[in-house]
Model the fold of this input.
Amino acid sequence: MENIDFNQILSIAIYGSAVGLILIGLYAVLMKKHLTKIIIGLSIIDAGIHLLFIAIGYISNGTSPIFSEKGISLVSEGTKMVDPVPQALVLTAIVIGFGVTAVALSLVIRLYRHHQTARIDQIKTLKW
Amino acid sequence: MRKLLVLFLLAVIAFSLYKPLSTIEFGADRMGSIENPTTVGAYYLSKTPSELSVANVITAIVVNYRGFDTLGEVSVLFLAATGLGSILYRRRKEGEHSISISKPSSQLLQAGSKLIYPAILVLGAYVFIHGHLTPGGGFQGGAIIATGILLMMMSYKDFHLNHTVLTWIESLAGITFATIGIAGLIVGKTFLENFMPIGTLNDLFSGGIIPIIYIAVGFKVAAELAGVLDTLLSIKEK
Amino acid sequence: MILFTISIVVLAVILIGVAVYAVMQKDLLFAVIATGVMSLILSVLFFLMQAPDVALTEAAIGIALTTIIFVITIRNTSRREDEVPILKESDASEMDDKQKAKI
Done:
């Protein structure tokens, strides 16, 4: 019981699920025919990449990078905080991802109005 | 055949992701000590309390160290909202009205959403005003306010936003952000330089320009997201 | 540490399961709700990994706003993934005429 390597289990679980999400989303983008499903795949890829970034920035037994009342003295004592840079990047990426999803979905609605279908194998003409 | 090809491609990608990720140990401390930082994250952690006196380091990075990036980000959101409106624009035909034919919401939903709508707005404002002290900030607070507006739009069919007011809020917030940046250029040396007194850590009025910019970002994000939702919800039903 | 490991592993397994369900489901409304549940689990994972800012953003944008714009899209397009548009004979001929006129 004592020699279980928790970090090994954690790294398999977190990195595995992040890479798994990326692969599942890529599969949906490549194989599915319905445009809404393709955009669901894109947002799943997004989620996987965000999880990967946060996991790489994590430090075990670290605290979130927010200083408390005694913040400055805690820093000099060497209390660990997790890396704040990936978190700031992911914060930006989530908001931009929402904008991208909104524009993509509005294009789907526009295509459906024109072709009466949202399946890419039934859209015959390239013109709209 | 196509499925085989796709699965082969996914296997290649999985292998090429596995190779570098196996060298990154989960939870390892790669930041060096605070005294002599080895990564940029450790540098920010060591400098933020003394340079900016902001409690939330992520806010310091998003608004001050990488502030120009945030200005671009809100511009991208603005472009997304505008593009959405122009893609979905459709001229009204003769005799066509925008009266919705769907049933009105139930009494319970209407009364309940009217009850919690002000609370959601206050929560959003709290989150973006205290963005430099607690988790949260302009993006989170703006999104929370947009969800509150969404609740009202879904429960009341005739709840519509005034687009002129939205445009004004958005433009004023954007102008505030850009003006503070240019003022930093004039007073100090660089764009978005923190030229105001930074105060003491954990005060509401601390951090110089950071709370002002984050409040402006909060208003801008709330107006943009509410505009996107209003555009999408006012599409005429089939 | 044990509790942390167990909760992370359980959440990761549920995350993958929900994502597979979202991709495999033919009814797009179910798939979209599964994507929302995926965002919820992701938000809890971010919180456990000491990123409260990102967790708040994911909770507000990923769960509420993204799900609702997907639902609006499904209301304005088709709901089934394998749906073939059922065109009546008259509609089909009318569409052909329109397309011919455009070409």
Summary: Chain A has four helices and no strands.
